[in-house]
Design goal:
The chain is mainly alpha-helical. It has a domain at 21-154: Intergrase catalytic core (hpI Integrase, Chain A). The chain contains 9 helices and 5 strands; from the N terminus they run H-H-H-E-E-E-E-E-H-H-H-H-H-H. The protein has helices at 21-34, 39-48, 52-56, 102-117, 136-149, 155-168, 173-180, 185-192, 197-209, and strands at residues 63-64, 69-72, 75-79, 83-87, 96-99. The strands form 2 sheets. It has a 3-stranded antiparallel β-sheet with strand order 1-2-5, with no helix packed on it. It has a two-stranded antiparallel ribbon with strand order 3-4. A hairpin with a 4-residue loop joins strand 1 (63-64) and strand 2 (69-72). The longest helix is centred in the middle third of the chain and has 16 residues, at 102-117. The protein is globular and about 60 Å long. It starts with 20 loop residues before the first helix and ends with a helix. This is Site-specific integrase. GO terms for molecular function: DNA binding. InterPro entries: DNA_brk_join_enz, Integrase-like_cat_sf, Integrase_catalytic, Tyrosine_recombinase_XerCD. Keywords: DNA recombination. It comes from Romboutsia weinsteinii.
Length: 211
Amino acid sequence: MEYVNINKLRYIDSEDVILTKEDAYKVFSFVRDIKPMHEIFYKVLYHTGMRLSELSGLTWDNVDLDKRIIKVRQQMQFQTSKGHILVLLNTKSSGRDIHFWNTLYDELINQKNKLNDLKIHSQFVCSKYNGSAIYKEDIEKVNRLINRELLRFKAHSVRKLHATMLIEAGAEIKNVSARLGHSNTRITYEIYVKNTNRLIDKTVSIFESVL
């Protein structure tokens, strides 16, 4: 370590991107105009908080439309020797069932009809025109356009927004953590749930009610 110059080391504080619900809907509209096949990716991400690799690897056989459940059982991964392939999830807690309601149900039905109308035969929920999955690399290209032409944006921030909105609305942290596929609630609280004005006001209101 005698050759290491500590004075040359710098800590760079990377400002987090905090999205609002209004931002999310702006993104939907923007993507619909420039990459219509990719819109469903952002909408499912918003409604479920799934990881990008999980959503890229989501197949129709893991979507139970009758019971309104998405079964997260696999993910899409790029391997140098094989290209993009479906692989097992990284951890036991990542495997989970995500329940959804009418809004996402309608979006998924519309997606099925859209693929049928375009005669796209694909096992993937988020499919390109050729039937292959929409990969993380495809989303990153769209994200660069969003950042350049619309607003500061990271796709992963939609996952964080999903968690924050649930907590703001009063959802139990344990359930939110399980929905995101976290191994414990500490990760959900410290990394994913932002201290928004609504949460601050809620804390003040709770205190006021017990005076």
